[in-house]
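Lab meeting notes turned into a lecture example. A postdoc, R.K., suggested we walk through two folding results consecutively so the class can see how the record format repeats. The first protein's sequence and structure tokens come next.
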Amino acid sequence: MDASKLCVRAKLQLSTLQRAENTDSTPPITIAQAANIQAVCEAAGVVFDPGGIGVRLQRDPE
């Protein structure tokens, strides 16, 4: 999924996502915006590790 699709699904402006991506500190977005981004990513199969350290793709059930 590209950034523009993520923004549409998370109901964000592309400039908001770009600002969040281009910082080395706390992203300048709201908790609600971060939750929307996470929900869209999780729906696409991304698993956020507990503790917020990393992510991985969900494995297909065997």
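The second example is placed directly after the first for contrast:
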Amino acid sequence: MRIKVVTKGLAFPIRIVLPYGLLTLFASKTVLKALLKNVAEAEEIIDQLDSRVIKETVKQFKEFKGTELVSFKTKDGTELKIIL
């Protein structure tokens, strides 16, 4: 997954690349609990998540690689794109 943000105030666009393997890793309840251990009520929310569904969703994302999920441009020239 790729995220691109372009604004007039920056000399170059911000680009964030999230590999699908990393997304799958974050779907693990153990990893989420370790990352969010200082957030109040995070453990309760994480326990409600079904990690198998999240991992299956990431697998489905791979089939639609290159699809633009979000693409918009504001009047001030700020541009955001999220691409699978």
